[in-house]
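tool=predict chain=A
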Amino acid sequence: MSKKNTDPIVKLLSILCPMIYFASYLTRKNYGIVMEAVISAEGVTNAQAGLVETLALISYGAGQIISGILGDKFKPQNVILCGLSATTVCNLLMPFAPNMTFRAAIWFINGFAQSMLWPPLVRIMAAYMDKQAYDDTCVNTNVAGISGTIFLYLTSSLVWLKFFGETGWKYTFFSSALICLVILTVWMLGFKRIGKKGTAAQNSAVGGKADTAGKPKLSVKLLLGSGFLFIALAIIMQGMLRDGVTDWVPTFIRNTFQIASEHSILMAVILPIIGVVSLKVIGFINRKFVKDEVKAAGSTFIVALACCVFLALFYDKNQWVTLGVSALVVGCMHAINFFLICIVPARFEKYGLVSTMSGIINSLTYVGSAAALYGFGAISDKWGWNACVTSWVVIASLGMALCFIGVKPWRRFRRADV
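tool=predict ok
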């Protein structure tokens, strides 16, 4: 990536982009975090509650591809504006839904609205920033998203569920919508300022269609020869463990050790905290040592596999050890997410397809997430948590193998992309 920006614009975007992802996580992750409270209050099964999130993840994953294309053809800042507006409305409606069917419909729409955020955001960052600024902002943007998750865990358990009991989960949606509305306003004002500061050439980077004149074409043969298929499957495995473990750990802990919902949700805040730490560490490691993002992802899967094996053998011995090791699994997945979802799409800038490829790649994450959200709930209902944790071992093993198979062809593709 070459630098296409002036420093004041980069500094402003380095604030605006993390804010958008903070709002995104607030209005997307909140259902998963209060899902255990919904199960307790509404008397539904794990699979029924998980189906709401699964449908949202399906629309989110499919929408990534559509929004990725839109982000390359239209002003990406306006695509983000539409998505953030729609998700605010969905969050305001969620507490008023009379049953799980209506909640599933609202959250399905919310999933598509959320899909309009990340691919256009990647295009904006790639258009304005050099490699170092891009990598640093990607790390900070992902940290901001996870920080939104931490905020949700703390406010849901220490405020809304504690003081409002069974109906407390509804206030999580109200507060998320309110904060999202504030960030939406800041985003509009921020881009108005960028429009005034930027030159005509800089504005063209986010002014409509991507400039593909003179760019080489990305053929299907070249893409398949790059090992992208193996990377794509590894991304699905990453999505299964990242979101599946994150969303089911509160229920997993509560069922295994028989503790209250608000306590299990509060305990689970360690997952995003470890995620923030892991991203900061990975950001440093990436700058200093990483030369191949796919090989780095495969190595990280090895650590996750060891943690999953430990859980399969000892998950019911101690709630804090179980929670800590689960957090390490999620932390590893955030690191892999950085390598495969943030860095890999930027390799397609020379083809003018950053947003499109980002949408395709990110959609794969949520293919895995959707399968895990419903699948882990169904497995735990039918065979228990031991079988569910064993499935994590299998998933981590597959992810590791797929990454290492894809290392050589991806390396050849990158060399051709200089």
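Residues 1-5, 199-205 have pLDDT under 50 and may be disordered. The CA atoms of residues 233 and 402 lie 7 Å apart.
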